[in-house]
Write a structure and sequence with these properties.
Elements: H1 3-21, H2 24-57, H3 67-102, E1 107-111, E2 117-120, H4 122-128, H5 140-143, H6 147-155, E3 162-165, E4 176-186, E5 192-201, H7 203-239, H8 244-276, E6 285-287, H9 288-306, E7 315-320, E8 325-328, H10 331-347, E9 354-361, E10 367-373, H11 395-400, H12 407-417, E11 421-427, E12 431-438, E13 443-445, H13 447-451
Parallel strand pairs: 7-9
Antiparallel strand pairs: 1-2, 1-5, 3-4, 4-5, 6-8, 8-13, 9-10, 10-12, 11-12
Helix pairs in contact: 1-2, 7-8, 8-12, 9-10, 10-12
This protein binds adenosine-5'-diphosphate.
């Protein structure tokens, strides 16, 4: 029933009884009284409805009522339910969206128009060393103090990223971060007002890029040097009349240089093979007795060349406390890594010095292979860099003894591929110890040992 009809009914309810009892004039007054009463009652219902709406605002449920106001209440209740449902859905969508950003490997921050933090994912907080909850509404420039970042923010050109260092006092090596801002969202005037900030840790990326550049430069340099020497000799042989003795001396020097290039290329190929191939299987076995005897044979052969008469000889000692043990992995790689350490010990220990090679089973069933020498030793500042490609403490000494600067790099790769660890300790003037361990799952006791 619409409100006009109700109004007419109210009029008739006052008018009809009055016309029956009194005059027409009184009947009109009766009708108007009916309308008045209806209006009073209706405004009371409206107040009640208004109160209900206020209650609903406060979270109380809407009560059932009759009539047109009841109908309105029902409609409002329905609309409220609908909007609550929509609110829940968009809230859920927002939560899903935020969890997706939370899972992002990059840092994501939302900044308001005044560049205050509105929200940050955990990665962003970690990278910028801020607290995702505590630092909400803090100005980003109060927390990221790098001048490069402040300049970038002020310049307002966000078409590229900015790279800066974190000012962490705890980190030994500060992180290098790349951040880029993107404008989004709009205010009432329709202007883009908010900022999305994406942050990435590019420390490893930059390091890898620098290493790649160094590597290319090093390889070129290492190859160019013997090539220059070789071409010089070829020119001499072509242009100068040489006697037989000079000729043969030049030829042997040329052979030395080509040998050097061969070793370099062979080590480079070994390294690239190690990097490209999958981890060694657990199928192949290398008995430690075989490893140690092969190493000893090679070392003695090397000593025959190195230890010239009258210059003293190396004292070589092999100690293997466990014989009945097999190493599981790539035997060529394991032999090459251990032989590299023995050769280095002999090369960097003058004749008369001692080299001790040992292999033992550790209490936690790992195996340790160690080479200890009484050579010149290495200053502490060089130790962390020894396994870098082409890193040498004494460049000319390494070259003289036929080194490529890649040996320890190969050793480290082999050991890591087998799940082991390479440890280097040294004292200047006293000697060095190079040792690697292999995990227990790369060690197999042979039956003889188990039976014992
Ligand atoms: P290289 O072919 O030059 O020997 P490596 O990678 O095997 O290259 O070794 C890197 C550097 O580590 C060497 O140039 C040398 O300076 C140092 N080094 C390696 N082993 C020893 C050792 N036993 N004693 C002293 N210095 C060593």
């Amino acid at each position: 029933m619409n409100r006009i009809t109700t109004l007419l009914i109210a009029f008739c309810a006052g008018f009809l009884p009055a016309i029956a009892l009194f005059s027409l004039q009184n009947a009109v007054w009766g009708g108007l009284l009916g309308v008045l009463l209806w209006l009073v009652w209706d405004s009371w219902r409206m107040r009640q409805f208004d109160q209900q709406l206020r209650n609903a605002q406060a979270g109380l449920p809407l009560q059932e009522s009759q009539g047109s106001w009841g109908l309105l209440t029902q409609r409002v209740r329905h609309l409220l339910r609908l909007s609550e449902q929509q609110l829940r859905q968009s809230d859920q969508r927002l939560q899903d969206f935020l969890s997706a950003i939370q899972a992002s490997p990059n840092g994501v921050l939302l900044l308001d128009a005044q560049t205050r933090i509105e929200w940050s994912n955990q990665t962003g907080a970690q990278l910028l060393e801020i607290d995702a909850q505590r630092d909400v509404l803090q100005h980003i420039t109060n927390l990221v103090r790098a001048p490069e970042f402040s300049e970038y923010l002020q310049a307002g050109d966000y078409s590229h990223d900015v790279v800066f260092e974190t000012a962490s006092s705890t980190a030994q090596h500060p992180k290098r971060l790349s951040a880029q801002l993107h404008r989004y969202g709009s205010n009432v005037q329709g202007n883009v007002s908010k900022l999305l900030m994406l942050v990435r840790d590019i420390t490893a990326l930059e390091l890898a890029e620098a290493q790649r550049r160094d590597f290319v430069a090093n390889v070129s340099h290492e190859i160019r040097t013997p090539l220059t020497v070789l071409s010089g000799f070829v020119e001499t042989l072509q242009n100068l009349p040489l006697d037989e003795a000079q000729r043969s001396r030049y030829l042997s020097l040329m052979q030395e240089q080509s040998q050097r290039m061969q070793s370099l290329v062979s080590d480079l190929l070994t390294l690239s093979r190690l990097e490209a191939s999958p981890a060694p299987s657990y199928e192949a076995r290398l008995p430690v007795s075989q490893l140690m005897s092969q190493l000893e044979r090679d070392a003695r052969a090397m000593m025959q060349v190195m230890d010239l008469p009258g210059h003293g000889t190396h004292r070589l000692h092999f100690d293997c406390t466990v014989q009945h043990l097999d190493l599981l992995g790539d035997s060529t790689e394991l032999l090459s890594a251990s032989s590299n350490l023995v050769q280095n010990a002999l090369r960097y220990t003058p004749p008369g010095g001692a080299v001790e090679v040992s292999l033992r089973l550790l209490p936690d069933d790992r195996v340790e292979f160690a080479v200890q020498d009484t050579g010149a030793g290495i200053a502490p500042e060089h130790l962390p860099r020894l396994t870098e490609r082409f890193y040498r403490v004494d460049r000319s000494r390494s070259r003289e003894s036929g080194g490529t600067g890649l040996g320890l790099s190969i050793v480290k790769h082999v050991v890591q591929r087998h799940g082991g660890e390479l440890r280097i300790s040294s004292e200047l003037g006293k000697g060095s110890r190079f040792a690697f361990t292999l995990p227990a799952n790369r060690v197999l006791m042979t039956e003889l040992r188990l039976a014992a």
